[in-house]
């Protein structure tokens, strides 16, 4: 059983469709199994999707369903920088700060969709652990394709990560890899400094 002595913040970064949600779900299930009751899952993109939904009077679920539409994705990509340029407010950071403020602590925070320097700084400012997932894209002949990154993905490889995970096999293999990294995370001095683990 894991007893939280301080907030545990885990940030998950990676390009579109690399397995960030899969990892977040997997880790959440592991923490539930190990007795962590006070846990919060946040998706950075929800801040922008909430703003768009409120602006056009569409509910969040509807925006979430169409977020993979290339036109909608282009719109979502520019909303955050444009809002910050005009009003001086980073929507994602405001979203994370509000969630952090409203949560009873200590708590586990798993935050997916980290992509910008401000989001990386937020994770580090909260003594968090930052994880990058990489996943190659193959063509029909099995060759690795070069896919142009989205504007918000271009800086991903420039950040300093605590863990880098390669998701280059089947979903089943990826879950085994995540089990390994979860167990390693629990043994790390970073995690042990904020928790106590009972057999």
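^ structure tokens above, recovered residues below v
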């Amino acid at each position: 059983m894991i007893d939280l002595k301080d907030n545990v913040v885990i940030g998950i970064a990676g390009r579109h469709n690399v397995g960030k949600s899969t990892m977040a779900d997997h880790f959440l299930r592991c923490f539930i199994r190990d007795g962590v009751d006070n846990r919060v899952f946040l998706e950075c993109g929800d801040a922008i999707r909430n703003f768009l939904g409120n602006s056009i009077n569409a509910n969040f679920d509807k925006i979430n369903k169409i977020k993979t539409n290339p036109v909608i994705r282009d719109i979502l990509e520019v909303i955050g920088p444009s809002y910050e340029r005009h009003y001086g407010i980073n929507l994602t950071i405001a979203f994370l700060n509000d969630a952090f403020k409203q949560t009873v602590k200590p708590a586990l925070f798993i935050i997916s969709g980290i992509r910008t320097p401000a989001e990386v700084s937020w994770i580090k400012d909260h003594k968090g652990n930052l994880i990058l997932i990489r996943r190659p894209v193959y063509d029909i002949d099995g060759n690795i394709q070069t896919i142009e990154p989205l504007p918000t993905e271009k800086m991903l490889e420039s950040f300093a990560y605590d863990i880098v995970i390669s998701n280059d096999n089947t979903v089943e293999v990826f879950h085994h890899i995540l089990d390994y990294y979860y167990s390693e995370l629990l043994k790390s001095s970073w995690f042990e400094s904020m928790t106590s683990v009972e057999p």
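The domain at 2-44+96-197 is CATH 3.40.50.300 (Rossmann fold).
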